[in-house]
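Design a sequence for this backbone.
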């Protein structure tokens, strides 16, 4: 059936296309294997937004001159701000209730604050958190990156479109401006994709996404100019080809949604979805009939499309909160998350979007709308920050309510010894120096120095080192670099040239600065992890990685090279202390210690490990460490396992207080438990 061209008014098939886009995004976020390229549904939204905003502005008599630009900003403010504000504040509240601070959530607060002013995409790009990384998956504000791109595009749109309403040659000026801006953006996206290593910036930045919105604008302009030129009607052959073009465009869109790959967006994998969307918009704009047009204009598709903004806003924080609490892996939790999404989206659409968009009786000027909107957003940003800052007093999480037990904070030391000043400074190379300032009750320091070189486990001893500085007067120089373990003894561990170079430089520095009587402490992860903060590892694979001829040969080489590296230091009277492997747990306590998260799949194996199993797991590394210590004059192995695991099973806590934060890093309380043992070990070196 041939439909009539729809040059003005409402286009129901566009809502149908919005429905495809939002359903693709939701399906991908719920189960990526359902629609592997579903994240490109956002690219579809961008093209539609560029097309629709051009069409709506072109019909409006108010869009003229600079007042027209203010009118445009006020209109966009009414469309976007209310639902976004409610969603962000609600998300901030629920995040404070259920999500503790951790490596997984360390960028969430800043992302959320910048989302109020449309800059969250640049925060994510700057932090280097890929859209497909764990920290993004557990950040309840990650999805606001696309809103940031659109809002920044809307700031530029009036400047490039102002000439359009004047008609005539002025339209060619606007068209040329959009051609130049779109081409520049596309060139930037292509350039970053070919350089490699810039996938995160390319994904989030407005400069690499403008071309998708610009393509939608250009499509509208070309169609409008063709209609204005009284283009002749198409012949029978062309009318016959319309269904073919429409079907081809739909297939292109589907191909893009299925095949797009992480790390290849917005170029080149997003191109298929963009081309498919442009083709469908072009055909359906003039001929909305036919089976595809009828399906897209059907009541279910239009209903979903009209709610697409709210669905997009709410689905992501709901999914993330489920990941943090009940989990999202089972069919039951997935269905519950979908039901929550639909309910919240409908409430937002019905009671926030629609009334403030169409039913508001406040007849303020456009300039006042923009000004008031900005003030409200800034107030919202402040509220979000205050909720996050005071989360300890409202949170349901034991981690958030008891930070001094969970985090190895210097704050706890300062609170316990208020009469003493702890001086923390940074030396060249990123080395942290911790020493005692004025402290009338402390012992004399006698110039004792402790050099610490390690990975993130060295940083997790921060409170213990701070207490050593206060209680014993040690000057501690701490160099901790995540993932860079001195004396790496893990079987199957890939070589890291950057880490090796870093450690060589550090030990050269130690050779120049360490004096006889100084102590060098070398902590690090030297047994396989059983769990990461966001996923479990295979237990049998962890055991197997430590066995076999290849693993033994690797450890033998490490022993020889370590002895050669440390022998000059030990020969000069520097005490070398090696850390024996601590217990590792099969579940992270910070994610499994509350009633609302104990049923999470990551907690399914429990948080305890039999001591015999832990002894067997660490035996290969422990034997190598003892071999190294035996070959170095005055070297020793300090073993924290008997303190952390005095019983048959190794437990995550002691008397209800956590020994660990996650599966292998110590908590603040764990630091305090180990302090006497480590202090005694250091004191014994001086006897």
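Sequence:
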């Amino acid at each position: 059936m041939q439909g009539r061209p729809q040059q003005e008014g409402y286009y129901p098939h566009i809502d149908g296309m919005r429905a495809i886009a939002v359903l693709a995004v939701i399906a991908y976020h719920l189960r990526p294997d359902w629609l592997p390229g579903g994240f490109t549904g956002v690219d579809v939204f961008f093209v539609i937004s560029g097309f629709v905003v051009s069409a709506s502005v072109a019909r409006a008599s108010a869009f003229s001159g600079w007042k027209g630009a203010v009118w445009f900003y006020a209109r966009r403010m009414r469309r976007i701000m209310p639902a976004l504000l409610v969603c962000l504040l609600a998300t901030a509240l629920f995040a404070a209730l259920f999500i503790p601070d951790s490596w997984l959530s360390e960028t969430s607060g800043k992302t959320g604050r910048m989302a109020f002013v449309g800059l969250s995409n640049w925060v994510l790009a700057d932090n280097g958190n890929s859209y497909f990384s764990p920290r993004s998956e557990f950040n309840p504000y990650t999805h606001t990156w696309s809103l940031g791109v659109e809002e920044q595009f809307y700031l530029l749109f009036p400047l490039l479109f102002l000439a359009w309403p004047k008609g005539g040659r002025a339209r060619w000026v606007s068209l040329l401006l959009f051609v130049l801006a779109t081409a520049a953006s596309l060139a930037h996206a292509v350039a970053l994709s070919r350089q490699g290593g810039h996938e995160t910036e390319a994904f989030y930045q407005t400069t690499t996404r403008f071309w998708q919105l610009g393509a939608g604008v250009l499509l509208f302009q070309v169609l409008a100019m063709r209609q204005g030129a009284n283009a002749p009607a198409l012949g029978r052959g062309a009318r016959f080809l319309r269904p073919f073009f429409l079907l081809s465009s739909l297939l292109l869109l589907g191909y893009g949604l299925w095949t797009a790959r992480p790390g290849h967006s917005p170029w080149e994998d997003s191109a298929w979805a963009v081309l498919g969307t442009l083709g469908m918009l072009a055909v359906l704009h003039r001929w909305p009939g036919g089976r595809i047009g009828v399906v897209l204009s059907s009541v279910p598709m239009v209903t979903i499309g009209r709610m697409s903004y709210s669905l997009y806003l709410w689905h992501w924080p709901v999914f993330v909160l489920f990941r943090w609490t009940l989990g999202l892996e089972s069919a039951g939790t997935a269905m519950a998350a979908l039901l929550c999404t639909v309910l919240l989206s409908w409430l937002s659409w019905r009671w926030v979007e629609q009334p403030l968009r169409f039913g508001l009786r406040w007849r303020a000027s456009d300039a006042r709308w923009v000004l008031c909107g900005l003030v409200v957003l800034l107030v919202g940003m402040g509220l979000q920050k205050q909720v996050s800052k005071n989360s300890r007093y409202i949170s349901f999480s034991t981690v958030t309510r008891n930070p001094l037990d969970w985090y190895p904070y210097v704050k706890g030391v300062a609170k316990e010894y208020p009469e003493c000043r702890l001086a923390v400074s940074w030396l060249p190379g990123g080395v942290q120096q911790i020493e005692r300032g004025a402290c009338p009750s402390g012992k004399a320091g006698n110039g004792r120095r402790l050099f610490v070189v390690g990975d993130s486990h060295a940083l997790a001893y921060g409170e213990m080192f701070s207490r050593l500085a206060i209680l014993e007067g040690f000057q501690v120089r701490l160099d901790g670099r995540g993932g860079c373990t001195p004396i790496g003894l893990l079987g199957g561990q890939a070589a890291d040239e950057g880490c090796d170079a870093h450690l060589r430089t550090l030990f050269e520095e130690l050779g120049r600065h360490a004096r006889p009587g100084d102590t060098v402490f070398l902590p690090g992860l030297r047994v396989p992890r059983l769990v990461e903060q966001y996923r479990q590892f295979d237990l049998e694979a962890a055991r197997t990685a430590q066995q076999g001829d290849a693993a033994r040969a690797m450890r033998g080489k490490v022993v020889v090279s370590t002895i050669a590296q440390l022998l000059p230091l030990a020969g000069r009277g520097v005490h070398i202390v090696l850390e024996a492997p601590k217990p590792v747990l099969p579940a992270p306590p910070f994610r499994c210690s509350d009633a609302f998260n104990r049923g999470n799949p990551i907690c399914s194996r429990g948080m305890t490990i039999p001591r015999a199993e832990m002894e067997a797991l660490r035996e290969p590394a422990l034997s190598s460490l003892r071999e190294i210590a035996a070959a170095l004059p005055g070297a020793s192995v300090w073993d924290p396992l008997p303190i952390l695991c005095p019983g048959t099973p190794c437990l995550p806590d002691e008397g209800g207080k956590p020994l660990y934060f996650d599966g292998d890093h110590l908590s603040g309380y764990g630091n305090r438990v180990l302090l006497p043992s480590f202090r005694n070990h250091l004191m014994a070196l001086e006897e």
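The first helix runs from residue 12 to 30.
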